Amino acid sequence: MISIPQKLLYLTLILLCTTSTLHSQISFQVTLKDSTYDNMVYDAIELSNGQFIIVGMRILQPGIYAANIMKIDAYGNLLHQNILRFNGNSSRLLSIIQLSEDQFVLSGVTYPGTAGNIWICVMDSSLNVIAQKSYILGTYSLYSSKMKLDYQNNILVFGRIDSLGTPYSFIFKLTPDMDSIYCRIYDEQWSIGQDLIERSDHKGYYFLAIGFNLGSGKILSLDPDFNIEKITILNDEIGDHGTLKLFNSTHFMVCALKAPTNSMSYKIGVQLYDTTFNLIHYSYYGKTDTSEYPALIKSLDFSDPLSVFIGGTSNMFQYEFVRADNWYRLNNIDTAFNLKWERFYGGDGCYALYGILATHDGGCLMYGTLWDYHNNPDYTRYLRLIKVSKDGLLSDENGKPGVKAQEVILYPNPGTDRIIVESALKNLIVSFFDMTGNCVVKKSIQSTVESLDVSELSTGIYFYQVKCGDKVVESGKWIRE
User: Fold this and answer.
1) What is the pLDDT along the chain (481 residues), one digit of tens a residue?
2) How far is the C-alpha of 184 from the C-alpha of 29, rounded, in Å?
3) Is 402 in the same domain as 423?
4) How many CB atoms lie within 10 A of CB 462?
5) pTM for the complete prediction?
6) What's the CA gap between 117 and 122, in Å, rounded?
7) C-alpha to C-alpha distance for 85 and 66, rounded to whole angstroms
């Protein structure tokens, strides 16, 4: 006979096993193809059961948009989809927040004419619309926005509005019932609102913006009514495509594009500040001759400050439709900004990472687009979702290793006189072999991003191999034009 304490022990073990199963390291990579329409993606949330709701946009024809809301399971399979427009107008939904187990609020923009209005939509878990409403911004036109909830569950919509071609930042506050409370437009000088977080003491906000005299990034310290108390210029010219997140009650993190003046060598900048705006830690990803972009909408996330995810696109250009292969990149750093690992995903088309989401199992979801120009020359982007484990790895439904994430990337491919090798690994050797198997070039790699001179190679097809010590960490085919 089992005693009561033993029964409790067995019950505890069963619950622990069940919890472990629910939060196992599930990974997937999915391309949601729609060759009829061009697609974009803006936001994602994870539900308690491991499913995801993805917020995107379908471009029906030039200048006419529809919101594309999708629910996928924990393995990336599409469960539900809703394509909608507010009152039949061209419309986009850009952000989503969960209010309760079966209720979600989404925000975006609708165009009853040439000017964009705020669009708020409430949905249930089956993606049915419960209520929706639009809000006119006077003579301004909404260009882009994000959304957060404050500690009282009020809805904060913020971002960029335009007036006669000039951008301004704004914050619009509503009740959970979608009643307007207050709208603050910063029309003193041009600016573009990037991200907003509430202070831990609930006595104000930090607002990341570019503009206000200069184009570099700034943190606006705001009081509870969104009045500016202080403007702080961020270090090292970072600011665009920015994400803010509270690190703890006394520190916050910012991840944004580092774009040096008169240079096309863009980098991903990550900085940690205390609440008196002292720079505590910083890290930059990308070197000379590369273009590294942070995720276009949300580049920083974590549920555990010991495991911070930084997302971006490696070898990205300012315009997405470029016939060049590139990669999602995901870095993981600890509290002191030490790099734990760095991995790359893609290389078979033109990728653009829009956002990342730290998941309940300790892993990360990357969401963005893929232009498969190799097989589809039409200018249509597919939605590309990649969910990885806490170590940045991919596996199948049974937890077995799947397609390996790349730790080393070489580009451009095809290329000419120079090739760039990028990796967080140290002391690498890269070798190129001709079609007969002879080693024709052998180079050592000492830095994280290195440009190699391969001008001695004639045009043709070569095989490359990258070794770290005695281990082959990457191999493939390279074409010299």
Assistant:
1) 444 444 433 333 333 333 333 446 789 999 998 878 999 999 999 999 999 999 999 999 988 999 999 999 999 999 999 999 999 999 999 999 999 989 999 999 999 999 999 999 999 999 999 999 999 999 999 999 999 999 999 999 999 999 999 999 999 999 999 999 999 999 999 999 999 999 999 999 999 999 998 778 999 999 999 999 999 999 888 989 999 999 999 999 999 999 876 666 789 999 999 999 999 999 998 766 678 999 999 999 999 999 999 999 998 887 788 888 999 999 999 989 999 999 999 999 999 999 999 999 999 999 999 999 999 888 999 999 999 999 998 865 454 444 557 788 888 888 888 888 888 787 888 988 887 778 888 888 877 778 888 888 888 888 888 888 877 778 778 888 8
2) 41
3) no
4) 19
5) 0.85
6) 17
7) 5
The last residue of one of the domains, among 376, 406, 436, is 406
Q: Looking at the structure, do residues 344 and 389 belong to the same domain, yes or no?
A: yes
Q: Provide the H-helix boundaries in 264-414.
A: none
Q: Does residue 285 contact residue 343 with C-beta atoms inside 8 Å?
A: no
238 and 328 belong to one structural domain = yes
Beta bridge partners of 382: 370
Residues forming a β-bridge with 423: 408
Helices H / strands E in the chain, number of each:
1, 36
Domain assignment present for 212: no
Q: State the Cα–Cα distance between residues 210 and 228, nearest whole angstrom.
A: 15
Range of the domain at 397: 234-406
Cα-flanking dihedrals φ and ψ of residue 73, to 5°?
-85, -175
Let me know if residue 317 belongs to a domain.
Answer: yes
CB of 312 closer than 8 Å to CB of 367: no
Half-sphere exposure of 335 (CA within 13 A, CB side): 6
CB atoms within 10 A of CB 203: 9
Whether residue 342 sits in one domain with residue 245: yes
Q: Which two tokens stand for residue 400?
A: 């077995």
Q: How many domains, the chain?
A: 2
347 and 456 co-located in one domain: no
Kindly report the CATH number assigned to the domain that includes residue 259: 2.40.128
Strand-pairing partners, residue 266, are none
Say whether both 431 and 387 belong to one domain: no
- 287 and 423 in a single domain? The answer is no
Does 349 lie in the same domain as 238? yes
The DSSP secondary structure of 246-304, one letter per residue, reads EEETTEEEEEEEE--TT----EEEEEEEETT--EEEEEEE--TT--EEE-SSB-EEEEE
> How many whole angstroms separate alpha carbon 205 and alpha carbon 207?
6
Residue with tokens 């705006």: 277
Report the DSSP pairing between strands 307-314 and 300-304: antiparallel
